[in-house]
């Protein structure tokens, strides 16, 4: 079982790895079979629910997709990363939804400030993580992100959320 303080630290460290663009450290937070899903809002103001049949803002069925994204960012093959975007994440209202001997499910709110082209954009929402705790270190097994912004002025990438 993970203590609340350990969960908090885990979430803060993942956010800091993104802020500092420590990509290998950030990827290490994710299990190889992680599902990373950020649905989009449909025309009726409801979130999409099926990444296979509906539009998603982001969907990676495994860490391989995240690794490819990081490769593109690092090699300047991602339009979202040219020029570099400076980001700062704030994580708050952390709730432990359930926990057993193999996993913990947490929900939290987040805000990210992103600076690019002399403009500061604010992204906000909430995330639900399933964190596997049966191995040598905790890893994210599922990341579900709800972006609450209605308008996105620039490219959106993994470091914005």
Q: Terminal Cα separation, in Å?
A: 27 Å
The ordered string of helix (H) and strand (E) elements is: HHEEHEEEE
Q: How many domains, as an integer?
A: 1
Largest sheet: 6 strands, mixed
User: What is the averaged pLDDT score?
Assistant: 92
In terms of quaternary structure, the protein is: single chain
Shape call: globular
Named CATH topology: Nuclear Transport Factor 2, Chain: A
Q: Which strand-content bin applies to the residues? A: 35-45%
Named at the architecture level, the CATH assignment is Roll
Secondary structure tally: strands = 6
Strand order of the largest sheet: 2-1-6-5-4-3
What is the name of the CATH class? Alpha Beta
**Unreliable residue runs:** none
Structural class: alpha+beta
Question: Your description of this structure?
Answer:
The chain is an alpha+beta fold and 161 residues long. The chain has one domain (4-156): Nuclear Transport Factor 2, Chain: A (Roll). Helix content is 20%, strand content 41%. It contains three helices and six strands. It has helices at residues 4-19, 23-27, 63-74; strands at 30-39, 56-60, 86-99, 103-116, 119-132, 139-147. The chain has a six-stranded mixed beta sheet with strand order 2-1-6-5-4-3. A hairpin with a 2-residue loop joins strand 4 and strand 5. The longest helix is centred in the N-terminal third of the chain and has 16 residues, at 4-19.
């Amino acid at each position: 079982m993970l203590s609340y303080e350990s969960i908090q630290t885990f979430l803060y460290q993942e956010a800091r790895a993104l802020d500092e663009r420590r990509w290998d450290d950030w990827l290490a937070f994710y299990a190889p079979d992680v599902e990373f899903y950020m649905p989009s809002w449909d025309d009726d103001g409801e979130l999409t629910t099926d990444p296979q049949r509906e539009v998603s803002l982001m969907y990676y069925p495994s860490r391989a997709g995240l690794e490819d994204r990081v490769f593109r960012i690092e090699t300047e093959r991602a339009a979202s990363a040219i020029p570099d975007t400076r980001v700062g994440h704030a994580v708050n209202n952390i709730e432990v939804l359930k926990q057993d001997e193999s996993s913990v499910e947490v929900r939290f709110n987040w805000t990210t400030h992103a600076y690019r082209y002399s403009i500061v954009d604010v992204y906000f929402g909430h995330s639900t993580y399933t964190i596997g705790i049966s191995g040598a270190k905790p890893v994210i097994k599922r990341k579900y992100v709800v972006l609450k912004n209605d308008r996105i002025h620039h490219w959106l990438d993994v470091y914005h959320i």
